[in-house]
Amino acid sequence: MKSIKKTIAVILAAVVLAAVSAPLLTSCGSDGAVTLNVYNWGEYISDGSEDSFDTNAEFEKWYFENYGKKVKVNYTTYASNEDMYAKLKSGAVKYDIIVPSDYMIELMIEEDMLEEINFANIPNYRYIADEYRGLFYDPDDKYSVPYTYGMVGIIYNTSMVEGTPESWNLMWDENYRGKILNFNNPRDAFGTAMYRLGIDVNTTSHADWDAAYEALKEQKPLVQSYVMDEVFNKMKGASAAIAPYYAGDFLTMYGDNEDLAFYYPKEGTNVFVDAVCIPKGTQHKDIAEAYINFLLSEEPAVANAEYIGYASPNTLVRESEDYAEAMNEMHPDAYNILYPDNVDFLATYYQNLSNETRDYMNSRWEDLKIESSVGGGIYITSAVILVLLAIWAGANAIKKKYRARFYE
Questions:
Q1: What is the extent of the structural domain holding 120?
Q2: Which H/E stretch holds residue 41?
Q3: Are residues 256 and 290 in the same domain?
Q4: Which of 85, 93, 130, 132 lies closest to 111, judged by CA?
Q5: Would the pTM of this model clear 0.85, i.e. be above it?
Q6: What is the C-alpha to C-alpha distance for residues 74 and 56, in angstroms, rounded to an integer?
Q7: Does residue 131 fall inside a structural domain?
């Protein structure tokens, strides 16, 4: 019976996988339309919901009007750079457009996973601001086109936190024990400690990683929990008072809780860039380049920036009065939060770490988590022992009482 169930499970899994993968492996639809497979973060494009601009549908119309050919965008999403990388690395499916972050682009270039872009097919690239060209992950601007960028700051609840904080030290403040959140991933969590200590976040020194580990270990008793997406409900619902997170996401949270405020710590912070790339082996490179060029044109660029809430490297967006007005409707200081004057001071990028450094970081992160588990385990074990002792004592008392009655 077990073997039959296992066989059925395998067959069902294969059917589901085929159903999911089939659209990604199909070049043309039944109506002769070419399928363009776009793989992006969730909630990372204006999709027509709530009367917003439908980027993919409008591209399909635009492409037919300009090239006389039908294109169907097959749009799927991923939750992390690592998920996207693993999917492409497996070779199981093919994509034509992806939107990785800076450090992942650097890694994918090293591993020859990206196509060189023909910028002659992307005249709208001229709208990308100079400061977002030639960055460390693609210094010759061959493989990527910046899509969004953003910075990490500290979100805090003004009804729960006193004064006007300006430092990473807030996350180590004993006064807010049990009300502090931190990232639930090693790179960002270690980053909070490194910025506070003045350590290069791209360091290869074990001593530096150890120092950051000790700072996180010191902070741990103050931390309510390590979070990613859970930060939204915790901060909006005021179950936590302090959290490091992205500026664009703060604007989203503020819409549900106007007690929230945001600042960039004076010691500096992380800046990320997400960029559009074409994976190696695409069968539709020319259409993919047309898609990128369309994204850079004014209407989709402004619509996507408004929808996502992150900063845009596109000068058409930054010069749009309608965009500035829309952002400031979200928060009275939204535009200055997304585009701070001191961005050069704050601009520190996470670069791709060597395998050795990444492994050491992960081991120190596990040490931090294990220590927590061990600490919790001690309390649990102690409680179990006390319960067992109580049961033993009770049983022993009953036994003695029974024996006393027996010998009366």
A1: 23-147+274-339
A2: strand 34-41
A3: no
A4: 85
A5: no
A6: 9
A7: yes
